[in-house]
UniProtKB/TrEMBL annotation:
GO terms for molecular function: ATP binding; ATP hydrolysis activity; transmembrane transporter activity. The keyword Transport applies. The keyword Phosphoprotein does not apply. It comes from Streptomyces montanisoli. This is ABC transporter ATP-binding protein. The lineage of its organism: Bacteria, Bacillati, Actinomycetota, Actinomycetes, Kitasatosporales.
Amino acid sequence: MATAVSTPRRGGTGGRTAVAARARGVVKAYGAGETRVVALDHVDVDIARGQFTAIMGPSGSGKSTLMHCLAGLDTVTSGEIHLDDTEITRLKDKRLTQLRRDRIGFIFQAFNLLPTLNAIENITLPMDIAGRKPDEAWLRRVVETVGLADRLKHRPTQLSGGQQQRVAVARALAARPEIIFGDEPTGNLDSRAGAEVLGFLRTSVDELGQTIVMVTHDPVAASYADRVLYLADGRIVDEMFRPTAESVLDRMKHFEARGRTS
């Protein structure tokens, strides 16, 4: 699979784009012998800096496993993963934890909010742990964009599921990490709220140079990305640049049809 990253991002000026993260020969296997299951099968991929990348594929294709390995949330069986110039596959647990805290943002379907903290305290928690002060102007923009300005003093139990996910999105964006990983980040939001969050993620890429990697099954969500990677059986089998919801859906139908006839 080619790992070209020369296509300019939407709103960009063209030219070759730097690589924010890369995987080389990555294998992730579970079990041994006859029970061995290969989730990732010698994956090579580059994640372009300042771009929005979506990862798609059928259930069991390895898309979430790939994201977890790129983010340092899961170990690899073999191969290498680099975040910028740092090879994360060789880091000790303490150093890897620090790297995830300081340089990576996460958005998952499970909100992972602390019930004893209110919304703004949950948003700034990673920076508080790191001893860093937030950029107040940026923090206000994040909060206003995800519609939380009147909910900052509410604890998670006082928020709806959609509002809790907005807190999680704001928390990932607030510290301006080098790269944000999202696993179905709008999966628990209604279509309007999801569109607002995806629009802000798109804006954070175009205007602020944020790098985002998102696992999704939703063609509409994928249409916000610059590039879509398609996984099947633990391998990257295709990619699409400047996707639309219709083109993504057509491509997914093609893979599903091929899967039924194989």
